[in-house]
Amino acid sequence: MANEKIPYKIYLDENELPKQWYNVRADMKNKPAPLLNPGTLEPMTFDELRPVFCDDLVAQELDDTTPYFDIPQEIQEFYKMYRPSPLVRAYCLEKALDTPAKIYYKFEGNNTSGSHKLNSAIAQAYYAKKQGLKGVTTETGAGQWGTALSMACSYFGLDCKVYMVKVSYEQKPFRREVMRTYGASVTPSPSETTQVGRKILAEHPGTTGSLGCAISEAVEAATTQEGYRYVLGSVLSQVLLHQSVIGLETKAALDKYGIKPDMIIGCAGGGSNLGGLIAPFAGQMLRGEADYRIIAVEPASCPSLTRGRFAYDFCDTGMVCPLAKMYTLGSGFIPSPNHAGGLRYHGMSSVVSQLYHDKYIEAVSVEQTAVFDAATKFARVEGILPAPESSHAIKVAMDEALKCRETGEEKTIVFGLTGTGYFDMVAYEKYNDGVMSDYIPTDEDLAAGFAGLPKVDK
Amino acid sequence: MANEKIPYKIYLDENELPKQWYNVRADMKNKPAPLLNPGTLEPMTFDELRPVFCDDLVAQELDDTTPYFDIPQEIQEFYKMYRPSPLVRAYCLEKALDTPAKIYYKFEGNNTSGSHKLNSAIAQAYYAKKQGLKGVTTETGAGQWGTALSMACSYFGLDCKVYMVKVSYEQKPFRREVMRTYGASVTPSPSETTQVGRKILAEHPGTTGSLGCAISEAVEAATTQEGYRYVLGSVLSQVLLHQSVIGLETKAALDKYGIKPDMIIGCAGGGSNLGGLIAPFAGQMLRGEADYRIIAVEPASCPSLTRGRFAYDFCDTGMVCPLAKMYTLGSGFIPSPNHAGGLRYHGMSSVVSQLYHDKYIEAVSVEQTAVFDAATKFARVEGILPAPESSHAIKVAMDEALKCRETGEEKTIVFGLTGTGYFDMVAYEKYNDGVMSDYIPTDEDLAAGFAGLPKVDK
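Predict the joint structure of the above. Result:
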């Protein structure tokens, strides 16, 4: 099919959908460092993780040698309701940029969660159901992950308790209502319902919450109630495993038309989208079968890869979670309040961190006004109103396409469009009104975050 | 392919997309009554309509004999960015309802306008551009049409002036911001920018506006500025012509798998979705080639088909538009404020009205609490959070599927899922909080609306 005209949107047929997830760790010579018990500083064992996570998910988390995991039939069926996601040829964007580059984007926003988060939510809900649990707990910031998990739990008839960062709960009521529509209970965090929440409220009475704090509450709620486990939407290796469906579909669609990308670009917050998108391509690189430029794009206001330390750190503010080795700004780091989009996690997936450390991945940071410039331009020519997170990748894809205009190179650029911005109109309003500002943390800001890193000699 | 397993989602290939729109009027023996000049009560001529609408669109409006219109290449290219829309087999809903019925829905929500409105917006913008105009004006209520038109105008580089019903402008700022992101100017209506707006403001100082009033302002703005024309998102025959792409794709997808529907169900406000969805099926019925049940679903709070009069009426409150013969509640009728969704227009497309009058279409009305019950159930099993408008069709499709459970009949039900409810979370919140109420206008309420009907002896 190599010479066929490439359609605007490449949809795989149902029988071409991935039947297995790909575990990139299996092909990594330098494995991601193990999660550590914060008390003993020894690697977390299956039995230590079981009270927090579902058994099957713990097994996936700890397995860095099995390259493929079968996608259970029930999950494959659910995937068919909103997958395959289209791989879109951005003909209109190419024309608008007057570039010889060929631009493709994998669009994960065509589902009610509005993002790729559903790919892992349904997997985690499935394993919770399989284990006979009553329900799961989680945290959510702006609400994409919480929405995805609510949808997944509703499908399997599981209870879903979401701790939502208080400022989002109050200022973004619409996602909260989407979650409630799917039957989830949504609690503003910090709350009086947990010990850690009460402690944080006592120490910081006026706090509007943070993701790290909501994680602590959700973990406590899961481990202190019979029949519950905690689930997480990013960072963990199990999440990247499930999200590999993005990359596998992307690669299958490219292969179907004989397209070889020169570069693959994704936004990076905790790493779930980027890690999933690049998995099969990074696998080829790790096996010495192909070479690509892989570019992680992060906000200048939360620059864990470009300015963070590669060190063991807490995953949450309450320090109840295991330690993970990752590029981090310190678990106390909170982006400036003028930061509008997501991608505000202080750390980065261990898998992505290790690949970056080993130079399989490049990273760049971009400022948010430039990101919204790119988002608006993209929306006007490609139709889709992108999420602020996704727009980080758009910005760099456009930059690379413009470089091709200068050099005349016909490079093939693939980027991940993780979702839609329909629930981010407050940020767009700021941009439209010309009152959006940028923020780059000073070295002093970062030093304060690094000061909170635990002392781990590994 | 008749015996193949039906996929969850049927996507036509790009080369299977319709290249012509279908004009159902060509096959109607009883043609829809012509638009009348409100002064002379004579049929509006091409020259009388030209100052308001683009020339090509006037030609389409007046043509009730040409069965097919070529879709211009530029529009076909734009359609490829978000079409084909999927025809989805609702396997999960069927299972949840335990019905032998086979349920399909044509999902038009996978684009940033969130609905089918984009199908006609891009056509109208194209013809405006072709005519060398500077821009277009329109009205919008909740904002679906305004968003669609903003996207279309941005694509063709046209100015777009939207008069948005004031209550929506203030209470639904997010759609307003989507329109602004696409470069449209959005004015709350009634406004001081038009004569009719100033008049309405003087007479009703505290008014929060209405669709009919916004139409009057948009028409005045178009006809008093050089290089502008007015465009409308529903009701008109030209709009139904463009929206026939929905039905044509639906029919092609069904035919591809040898599926013959027993009934086709669509929500009906002004008739743009319903008229488009049913066009090729109604055409078969009109030509005596096939028989289907076609069901229009409207809100009990705005029951133009089920309780309206078939009469000439004004299309707008300011009475600046031509008269149309349609099922109507009177141009002064405004649904009760507790009415949450769209579908609040006082009249109904002349094409749909005539087909209903001639018994090709049935109509039912449903109350909004039952509609949100159905919407929530649908969301939880099929994933998609539906627009309140679309949920009217869901409700009746579910009712029909449950009848099949009683009778054991394996009927094939096709319904139109016009869009997503992401910008309707205030209504969902009311429903989730258990404070949503129903409203059925009394005969006295309706009599007041009918009293305003113009006296036309045709």
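The radius of gyration of chain B is 21 Å.
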